[in-house]
Amino acid sequence: MRHKKAGRRLGRTTSHRLAMVRNMVTSLLEHERIVTTTPKAKEVRKVAEKMITLAKRGDLHARRQALSFVRDKNVVAKLFGPLKDEYMNRNGGYTRIIRTGNRIGDAASMAILEMVNYTEGKVTAPSGN
Description:
Strand content: 15-25%
Strand order of the largest sheet: 1-3-2
Order of helices and strands: HEHHHEE
Number of strands: 3
Number of domains: 1
Low-confidence stretches: none
Structural class: alpha+beta
């Protein structure tokens, strides 16, 4: 029995699940919008909100904690730069899940996970590293 065990297993081993969530959080913070299944979106949302909360703290320890999870310096720089400024006056609820129906192949429930301030035509400056 799984009493008092938080989180979804998503049919993966622990290391595979952790790597998948890291990659999806990195993609979400980089592109500000991803398309995935609904259970994955719900798991990624938890971690993404914590990363934005770390960015709002803004100190060196928070940056190192974010780097230990995201592991992409450009994405962390974006997180502690423009994204931090966008969400500084917001008390939680930085992401939204929009359900888009079922996938054709296996009827999995699909969703769009996006940042609340996401706009379709927003152009970001390329980072030079």
